[in-house]
Amino acid sequence: MSKKTANDTASDLSDATPGQRGPADHERREQILSVADDLFKAHGFRKTSVTDIAREIGVSSAYLYRFFNSKQAIGEAVCARALSSMDNAIRAVAERDQPATQRLRDMLQTLLEEALRLFLRERRMHDIIVVSIENQWSVTEEHNRVVYETIEKIVADGRDSGEFERKTPLDEVCTAIRVTAAAYAHPVLLSRLGDPEEMETKLTAVTNLILRSLAP
């Protein structure tokens, strides 16, 4: 599997966010996203309008539509930037020069840490991620693909090194791990798992069970 850099990831996520207009690297686009991000965190995605964003920047709503065709398009772009930090973090773990067993453990831990940061500590970001999941925005589908492919790389490496069993179909193993890990990276489910320390204890137990099931 080929490596992806942070720039590659940013490009992938940009491609996955519909409703974009104008040059991708325009400084005004970045200003719009930065202001929208702040407003979404302060007031929530649902309560923030395109007019609110335009007013904060000091331009007309019509001007914003030169770059995004709707509030959803702005929301998807903000969401993509937030999720890309999680994607980059778990990809970095997958590329480490360590045994696959350790990388899988660290990747699931990193997924939880990033989810806690985005979904619980930055509560308004929780709001926009929930909206994106409920409405099946393409950015969350892209994020799910990245998580799956990261798991797939680690498991495949573990099979090649003899750390993991090879009898079970690879896609079945990766899907099972992805579904199991979903509770620790979903904003709504995460909020029901208890305090962060308890979550880490539960994740350790789940990870130990996963690794035992992968043993040759």
From TrEMBL:
PANTHER family: HTH-TYPE TRANSCRIPTIONAL REGULATOR BETI, HTH-TYPE TRANSCRIPTIONAL REGULATOR RUTR. It comes from Alloalcanivorax profundimaris. The keyword Zinc does not apply. Keywords: DNA-binding, Transcription, Transcription regulation. Residues 1-27 are annotated as: Disordered. The keyword Transcription applies. Residues 49-68 bind DNA. This is Transcriptional regulator. InterPro entries: DNA-bd_HTH_TetR-type_CS, Homeodomain-like_sf, HTH-type_TetR-like_transc_reg, HTH_TetR, Tet_transcr_reg_TetR-rel_C_sf, TetR_C_27. Residues 26-86 form the HTH tetR-type domain. PROSITE patterns: HTH_TETR_1, HTH_TETR_2. It holds the Pfam family TetR_C_27.
